[in-house]
């Protein structure tokens, strides 16, 4: 899967510790292979974020993204953070 990044994703990520940023890129590499989606807990969101999806970096940190094509072959990572990212 091809992954692109929204500017808001990088702004949010810069606020996180460097060690966590390394873990984030490891999880993004796993996300590129759809066989890993179950382990990353990829799920569709509801409410204000309807149409978006999320996956877990760890128990606390989530990445919110959207698929850019009908068949999930390209994803745009929108933001990253704790569960407060769902309240945006």
Structural class: alpha+beta
Sheet of most strands? 5 strands, mixed
Radius of gyration: 12 Å
Q: Indicate the CATH class.
A: Alpha Beta
- Low-pLDDT segments: none
Count of runs of 4 or more consecutive helical residues: 3
CATH architecture: 2-Layer Sandwich
- The number of domains is 1
Q: What's the oligomerization state?
A: single chain
* Secondary-structure element series: EHHHEEEE
What is the residue-mean pLDDT, rounded to a whole number? 90
Shape: globular
Description:
The chain is α+β, with helices and mostly antiparallel strands and 88 residues long. The chain has one domain (2-87): YaeB-like fold (2-Layer Sandwich). The chain is 30% helix and 27% strand. The N and C termini lie far apart (26 Å). 15% of the residues are buried.
Present the secondary structure layout.
Layout: E1 2-5, H1 7-14, H2 18-31, H3 37-40, E2 43-44, E3 53-56, E4 62-67, E5 74-81
Parallel strand pairs: 1-5
Antiparallel strand pairs: 2-3, 3-4, 4-5
Q: Which key terms come to mind for this protein?
A:
88 residues; alpha+beta; YaeB-like fold; five-stranded mixed beta sheet; 3 helices
């Amino acid at each position: 899967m091809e992954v692109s990044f929204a500017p808001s994703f990088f702004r949010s990520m810069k606020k996180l510790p460097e060690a966590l940023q390394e873990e984030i890129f490891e999880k993004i590499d796993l996300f590129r292979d759809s066989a890993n989606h179950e382990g990353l807990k990829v799920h569709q969101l509801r409410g204000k974020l309807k149409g978006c999806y999320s996956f877990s970096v760890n128990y606390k940190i989530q990445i919110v993204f959207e698929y850019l094509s009908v068949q999930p072959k390209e994803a745009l990572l929108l933001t990253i953070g704790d569960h407060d990212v769902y309240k945006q």
